[in-house]
Each structure stands twice: as structure tokens, then as C-alpha cells.
Amino acid sequence: MEHTVHKSFGKFLVVWFGQLISMIGIGLTAFSLGVYAFEKTNTATSVALITLFTFLPNILLRPIGGVLADRFDRRTMMIIGDLGSAAGLVFILTIMLTGDIQLWHIYVGVAFSSVFSALQSPAYKASATDLLDKDQFSKGSGLVQLAESSKFLFSPIIAGILLSITTIKVILVINIATFLIAILAVLVIRKSMKVEREEKEDQNWMTDIQEGWREVVTNKGVLLLVIIISLVTFYLGFLETLIGPMLLSFTDAKTLGTFQSVSAIGMLISSLCIGIFTMTKKYASVLVMGLIMCGLSFSLLGVSTNIYFIIFAGFLFLSSLPFVNMSADVLVRNNIANEKQGRVWGIIGILSQLGFIIAYSLAGFLADHVFNPLMMEGGALASSVGQIIGTGPGRGIALLFIIAGLFVILIAIITSRLKMIKTLEQSSDISSPPDVGGLAHD
Questions:
Q1: What's the 3-state SS for the chain?
Q2: Tell me: the pLDDT tens digits for 223-253?
């Protein structure tokens, strides 16, 4: 395997910028395909299935991607991952240009892209640690969160405008171009970086995966944190999948894009603060407070149909999320050795994001067949809960949001009382490994 010899925040910024542009493109496509599916079927299930097929292969194959990130040049793995992701979109675009596209064509295309994203993501996480010094970890994490926020900040409002003046085909072309920019950024730093190769005894992939598993489960604090994040992602999965169908039930795609972009200013502000001001302690406390704010604002999203109130709740939610991600990222980053990062992040990726997979699988069914019927006129809860949050299309999803937010708050309270989480912070303060890697929502 190869490791970089010299740290360079400047080279990290080059890679980060490429990923920022790529994230904007991914956000354009995700928003547009979701709107396309909902307008074609008028069901939350079709939107949920696109999200599921976008996410599931990525997570299931992440351990293999992690092993490859440890065995081969991490920058090469990023390039291969971005090329494959672009190829999946080329498939969807080709079908749209040559015939009548069906939803299953979209499922296949996004699933193909997701397979290659599983190669890119662990390599990107591990290479970030190659490029950053330990005291730059929180700053780097903040910038990564900023790139992530671009999917919500810039993409929805741009996609909403583009959909009103052009077609989804143009948006797919734009996303493909952004992948090429991300590849170019990696090629730029690849030529200028010196690397050293660490010789190791050949062993099969399963052995590497098992080593990554042992590295996670033997650190009880890290394992517990991963379990907590997985529980939280279960509830957040409902929000990510169903916020579009809820809003589209009483507004249009342009308003949905405006909501997502304006409320994402909260994520932008928080990510900038984290990126500018270096944090060195109290990550566990920040994690708990971030979870409480996420849960509270999550519930507020469901209590009203006033778009301005919903934007306010979305602002609070997305401004809290970077603090949760950064805290979890650094707590794990400071307790995992760099040479094992690729395989460890592969294992952590699949464990911490299992909640999303389950939520994506259940969201459409729960919305269309359980919660929405309860809140329709004449539904079982229309005369009780409906008197508070309203009845009609989408209000069942609102009820689901309220319940999920309350459970996130409960998880935060439990987390605040867990000594093992505090131990992660203490061990990183006392004796951190010389080179360590990161955790964040992908």
C-alpha cells in the first residue's frame, strides 16, 4: 500500500474543491430524479426506491472499497470510483435519449453509480488523513461538511430553476461533467505528491476485512459510537426520503428546491464555523447537543404546513447536523491508526449507515400505506392529532417526522450518560495515534 510522505493542506483543498463541484452535480441529479419519479407516479415509494438503490450498493460494498483503499493508491481508487459513477448516469441519459425510460432503468443506473461510489468514498476519507496534520482534522472535517452541504445549499434551487427552463437530460450532462472535474483535481495532486510504499505480506481480502472488523469491535467506545450513529441514521433516513413527497403534496418543485437551499444555509454557516475555528476538545458534549437540536428541529418540520416555519425548522436541522458529523468524525479519527483506515472506514461505513438502508426500505410503505391514511379526512387520527398538525395529503409523513425527532432526542439523552463515549475523547487527549482517519455522513 502507499502512504503520502508530506502533509499538505493546500493539496487537500485541491481534492476538496473537486469533490465540492462533484457534490453539487450529485445533488442536482438526486433532486431532479426524485421530482421526476414523484410526478410520474405520485407515490412516496418510487422516490424511496431511487434513494434505496442509490445508497444500498454503496454501503454493502464499502468494506471491499476500504480494503482496496489500503491495498492500492488511494488517488487511483478515487479516479476509478468517479469514472464508474459517471458511467451510471451516462446509461440513464442514453436510455432517455434513445427511448421511453422506465423507473427500473433509473434504478439500474443509480445502483451502478453507487457500486463505484463504494470505491471512491473510503479512499477519499483515508487520503484526507494522508494530507492533513492532526491539528487540522476538525478544520478538514468542517470543509468536508461544507462540500456535503452543497448538495442541499446550491443543488436544489439550481435544479428547481433548471427543471423549469430545461430538461432532466441537461442536468444529467452537468452532473457527468462535475465528475470529470473531480477526477481532474485528483490528477493535479497525484502528479505533485511523493509516496512511499509499505511492504506487507500478501493476504486475501477477507482477512483484511476481518482485520478492519476486529479494529472496530475491540475498541468498545468506537463500536458504541457507530451503533448510536446507526440508530440516528435510521430516523434521518425517513427525513431524507420523505421531505420531498411531504412538501410536493401541497407545493411545487421550485418551492421544494427553494426550501432545501435556503434551509441549507444553516449547514453552510455551521460548516464554515467548524472549518475556521479549530476545536480540540469537548467533542462528546458537542455531539450530544447537536443530536438534541437535530431531534427538536426534525419534529418541528411536521407541526405546520407554513412554508416559512418549515424553512426555519430546516435551517435549525441542517445547522445542527455538521456538529454531529464533525464530533463523531474526530472521536473515531483520533482512535484509529492510519494504516488501517481504509478497511476500518469500510466497516464503519456499512455499520453506521445500516439505519439508512432500513429506513429507505420502509419509508415508502409507511408513508403510503400507514401514516398518510391515518391522517386523511376520516382517518383514524384525523379527529385527534389531525386537529393539531392538520389532515390531508402528506400530513401522515409530518406525523412520522414528529415521532422520529422525539426518538433522536431520546438517543441524545442516553448518549450523554455513556461513559465509553467520554472515554473516546479522553484517550484522544492523552495519547493519540500519530496518523489517524474520519467519520461523517456520506
A1: CEEECCCCHHHHHHHHHHHHHHHHHHHHHHHHHHHHHHHHHCCHHHHHHHHHHHHHHHHHCHHHHHHHHHHCCHHHHHHHHHHHHHHHHHHHHHHHHHCCCCHHHHHHHHHHHHHHHHHHHHHHHHHHHHHCCHHHHHHHHHHHHHHHHHHHHCHHHHHHHHHHHCCHHHHHHHHHHHHHHHHHHHHHHHHHCCEEECCCCCCCHHHHHHHHHHHHHCCHHHHHHHHHHHHHHHHHHHHHHHHHHHHHCCCCHHHHHHHHHHHCHHHHHHHHHHHHCCCCCCHHHHHHHHHHHHHHHHHHCCCCCCHHHHHHHHHHHHHHHHHHHHHHHHHHHCCCEHHHHHHHHHHHHHHHCHHHHHHHHHHHHHHHHHHHHHCCCCCCCCCCCHHHHCCCCCHHHHHHHHHHHHHHHHHHHHHCCCHHHHHHHHHHHHCCCCCECCCCCC
A2: 888 888 888 889 888 988 899 889 988 888 7
